[in-house]
Amino acid sequence: MRQNSMQQSLGQSLDQEVLDPGMLDSDMADKVLVLSDADRAALNAQAARGLLLALAAQGAMGIAAAVIAGVVGGAAAGWSALAGAGAYFIPNALFALRLAVSVRAGKASPFTFLSGELIKLFATALLLWLLSRVAQDWLVWPAALLGLILTLKGYLLLLMFRRLS
Length: 165
Description:
By secondary structure, the protein is mostly helical. It has 7 helices and no strands.
């Protein structure tokens, strides 16, 4: 019980310290980062390059999944893996394009990101559902899931080559 009261008093003192408006004086003003237009452009270019690298890695992993499934399970498995990879890659590529356009136009916001992410997830689920309905005669689900998972984990390819930055 004593520990609980100590935690409450410590939490209150931290809250007072963090929320104290007197902290925003001259020593805090020195810590504010102001970016020039050139700095902003360099950061935007780096972000766009990172998006393209992530998309390339996801595409490579999707193709690798299709090749592996094709060699192990035959042509139907290869096409299934490619379809599973495409169910995630296509919405993700459209989302990345939308993010790049928003950043370039200066209209990027957390709402843009969150709404785009939700739309991407719903589109992926819709494409997987359509895949189950349209291709049920030839679809090999383990291969389709392999393509989906390897595409989702495309960033591992970037980490492997230490290009994620």
